[in-house]
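REQUEST ID: PR-0412
SUBMITTED BY: lab tech R.K.
PRIORITY: routine
TASK: structure prediction, single protein chain
INPUT:
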Amino acid sequence: MTTSSTTSRTGTTTAGASKDLTKSTTADSSSELVNEHGRTSIADTVVAKIAGIATREIDGVYDLGGSASRMVGKVRDVIPGTGTNVTQGVTVEVGEKQAAVDIGLVADYGVAIHQLAAAIRSNVINAIGDMTGLEVTEVNVTVHDVHLAEDDDDSAPAEPRVQ
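STATUS: complete
OUTPUT:
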């Protein structure tokens, strides 16, 4: 066992004993999930909720999920006693020390999709890493549709094409 000084994500330096000094900062925090005192297991649902909330925090995300999951979500919102499903459009695989995330979404029209995806990846990786200590190996983003502002304008009835 060697004694070392490590820098955390917050930039603070701490001294402590470590068996494996070759891991990255994120991996160092994930090693806290399994140690000589026991094991901490994090359910897939927990990671999916964190990823869903982190994705919704990014400007330019209109909704999560493909058309079928969004339709089910709209029905769920109408039923009393049910709330918004924050895991809609999010699929995760969680191991002992790592997680992989797939996100399907609808982007607002006019948003640079490549920048939106990069912002989502960064926010999801940081949120999962900070809250769980898991190393996020990948965040795959699929844009299913683009939302147009005029799609929300249902107040004016459409004129019939024929009489």
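NOTES: Residues 113-132 form the longest helix (20 residues).
REVIEWED BY: pending
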